[in-house]
Specification:
disordered N terminus, single chain, 7-stranded mixed β-sheet, two-stranded antiparallel sheet, 33% helix, alpha/beta, 7 helices
Length: 259
């Protein structure tokens, strides 16, 4: 009986993670066979996060209060206030928060929310001092597909309206404070495309232009990053020793002419 050979199945592609200097995690697909380079994927929540067992709005408020106490007693909190005082942006008329993540059962997200509220408090004082009186509160928006019902209820208690993806992108303009701690590129880059927010706290854009991340982003993303960086001041967000990783690799971007 003649010998027949079976064709070996092609090797399965392997996914590799690479952490860049600016805190992004990129995922590339590789194969032992030569071929065109695969596009870069990212992992992003597409459904509301599951609630921790027994979680209620009251328990979430209590946990937020605990983390707020940690935040307000930290050196990071005091340093951030000083940095915002140095920038003194007074032209803010709205705030857009991207990629905060689900809050229930997540300490880092609660601390990031506490930092956001500190920013709004300080920036509100600057605006009031500039105008000679306290203006009406500026509209506050948050967008993240991971938000669940408890997250939305807690944010609403602070006057923050949750909007569906991608509605927040259309709310950005030159008078916006953008707060996007560790936000996915697929959300952050469209948000700033063609926009010039007055103040932004987010992952750095510099590595997309000339750093290690430039090898993994599209030409369009490089253009967006380069445009965003024009006429910008940049300073590192202070570290929170009480909860390492909460604000790692974040950058505070102001307008150069506002210094």
């Amino acid at each position: 009986m003649p010998h027949t050979s079976r064709r070996r199945p092609p090797p399965r592609p392997r996914r590799q993670r690479q952490q860049t200097d600016d805190g992004w995690t990129t995922i590339t697909t590789t194969s032992s066979r030569p071929g065109p380079r695969r596009s870069i994927a990212h992992e992003s929540p597409i459904r509301p996060a599951e609630l921790p067992p027994g979680a209620t709005l009251d328990s979430l408020r209590l946990e937020y209060a605990r983390q707020e106490t940690v935040w307000q007693a930290s050196t990071c909190h005091a340093t951030l206030r000083l940095e915002l005082a140095r920038l003194r942006p007074v032209s803010l008329k709205s705030c857009v928060c991207l990629g905060l993540g689900s809050l229930a059962g997540r300490r880092h997200s609660l601390l990031q929310l506490a930092a956001l509220l500190t920013c709004l408090d300080v920036l509100g004082d600057f605006a009031a001092a500039s105008a000679g009186l306290r203006d009406e509160p500026c509209p506050l928006y948050a967008q993240d597909p991971a938000f669940n019902a408890l997250d939305e209820a807690l944010l609403a208690s602070f006057g923050i309206s949750v909007v569906p993806d991608p509605d927040a992108f259309g709310l950005m303009d030159a008078s916006t404070f953008l707060y996007a701690p560790h936000c996915e590129r697929s959300f952050l880059y469209p948000a700033v495309d063609g926009k010039e927010p007055a103040l932004a706290i987010c992952n750095g854009f510099a590595s997309a232009v000339s750093g290690p991340m430039s090898a993994f982003v599209s030409a369009r993303e490089v253009d967006i990053a380069r445009s965003f960086l024009q006429k910008r001041t940049a300073s590192a967000f202070p570290s929170l020793e009480e909860a390492e990783g909460t604000f790692n690799d974040l950058v505070i971007y102001g307008r150069a002419h506002e210094e």
